[in-house]
UniProtKB/TrEMBL annotation:
Protein's membrane topology: Multi-pass membrane protein
Protein name (record): Iron export ABC transporter permease subunit FetB
Protein location: Membrane
InterPro entries the UniProt entry points to: UPF0014_fam
Transmembrane segments: 44-74, 86-111, 117-138, 186-204, 216-239
Keywords: Membrane, Transmembrane, Transmembrane helix
Source organism, top-level taxon: Bacteria
Key word Membrane present: yes
Length: 247
């Protein structure tokens, strides 16, 4: 894409700003800030990746992945404000998911052990896990509030904390995975995913692009399940006091 063509893409931003102003949504400032930040962040990471791809230094690869996990943890942790210790639990869930996913891909020789494969796929995996964590925490808060009477009754009858909150945990894990599962059902029919679209636009064989997209699709599904289940195991006690009563 030429620089001129890239500049023309700002037309879409201008349309969004105009619509926001017309409907008095008050989003003009956020859209402008988001556009500038997004462009600068993408340009920055583009130059960083260009350097890493040339050096192929494993230390730099680990640093990039660690930074991704930290940022994803901070973002998802905002959904769990007030839950002491939620940040390290989110970080652990994402890190374990990334480690398992990448170990399988490299161990089974599904992808090449190069930064060109590891970093983009790690970024997509960590991003997917971040969204799952946020969805889980949101749903868990709603479940605890709506099921407070049921949970307290179970505790009064002698159930353990885990037994009392088990149903809420299961519903929250299920809810956090729904977008991923729905995406699997409609991929190729309703939407052409980003990785596949990018490869096709870059000139790759569509069949080859589909193979890589299937890899991402299946990996994301496993990553969503692993992340949500690990986070549920690590975090369910945070909704209780030391005396094992609901906060």
């Amino acid at each position: 894409m030429s620089t001129l063509a890239l500049g023309f893409t700002l037309t879409f931003v201008m349309i969004t700003v105009a619509l926001s102003k017309w409907q008095k949504l008050g989003l003009e400032k956020d859209i402008a800030i988001g556009t500038i930040r997004g462009a600068l962040q993408l340009l920055f990471i583009g130059y960083v990746l260009h350097f890493i791809f040339q050096t192929e230094h494993w230390g730099l690869i680990f640093i990039i992945i660690a930074i991704m996990i930290v940022i994803a943890t901070h973002n998802a942790g905002k959904r769990g404000e007030g839950l002491k210790g939620i940040y390290w639990r989110i970080a652990a869930a994402i890190a374990v998911t990334e480690t398992l996913t990448m170990s399988l891909m490299l161990g089974l020789h599904i992808i090449k052990p190069t930064s060109q494969f590891i970093i983009p796929i790690s970024g997509m995996t960590i991003g997917s896990s971040m969204i799952v964590c946020g969805l889980f925490l949101n749903q868990m808060d709603r479940e605890v509030q709506s099921s407070r009477g049921e949970i307290e009754a179970l505790l009064a009858l002698g159930s353990s904390v885990r037994q009392a909150i088990q149903q809420a945990l299961q519903r929250s894990v299920k809810a956090s995975m729904i977008p991923t599962i729905d995406g699997m059902k409609t991929v190729g029919l309703v939407q052409l995913p980003g990785m596949m679209t990018g490869m096709i636009i870059a000139g790759a064989n569509p069949v080859e692009a589909v193979r890589y997209q299937m890899l991402i699709l299946f990996a994301f599904t496993a990553a969503a399940a692993i992340t949500s289940i690990i986070l549920s195991i690590l975090s369910y006690k945070l909704w209780f006091t030391r005396e094992m009563t609901l906060k």
